[in-house]
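Worked problem 6 (solution included).
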Amino acid sequence: MLWTRWSRRRRTCQNRIHLIGELGENGFLRKLQKISADGIVDSAVNAADFSTALNGTYGVKWYYGTPAAMTSGCCCLWTVPTGVKKLQIQAWGSGGNGNGFCSCNRCHHYRGASGGFYNVKTIDVQEGWQYTVCAAGVYRCCSRECTGCEGCSSYVNGCNLSNFCAHGGEHGFANTDWTTLCHSENYCCYGPGDLGGDFATGTQDTGWSGTEFVYDRGFCHCWNQSLFASGAALIGTQAQMSSRHCWIRCGCWSVPYGNGGQSAMTNYCGGCCGQGGTGGGGLVKITYF
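Solution. The predicted structure is:
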């Protein structure tokens, strides 16, 4: 039964009448013409006709430093290849440092570092033009103070660009004032044209850490600390930190590209040498076509 139905459909397709027409100056059909299936040329379009890309100049270049603590990033001079007419440039700043400790006789609570900002710009170019491309490095030291260091900016300089960059992320922060309410800060708000791009955005800065405070032991026992450092905008990474009862917990030395650095943490008094890690290095992506 299945073969019979297919055969009937096949005969119908072979005998179908096709209509083609000519358009007049006003855009309406002026003349109709009938053709049969026999008038369609077999193998008029072959696979070889699609073997070459529509635009053989299309390509993508990534720029980044080493994925390690205190990375210096990457800066270089890039030349527009032959035949290229447009660039789309995307940039991410490096993440902010995590915080260290700032008191030896009191518990802390913490706000995690945030990831780098994002920016994008599409421009017309000519072959042979040159651009300075810098994927951001990070602060060259781990942070031992209550306030870490902000991330560095990634940027691209050249023709048809004006002050194009992506800022680094916010630093981590430790606070011994327990009357400060938990909150987060939104750094996402940018308008078209800000930072020299078509569209720019930041990440949600993280809120203050929570804790299980041991009241009968004074201000030197604050268990179950937990917080996270946000990733770079539109990348989707994050680093989470937690400590139940530990004298000193330093931040890890490396995090994903663009991510905020990890913070130092303690659950007791007396730990004064904990240090926060550096953020992840910045990124630049160039798509040319």
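Discussion: The longest helix spans residues 2-14.
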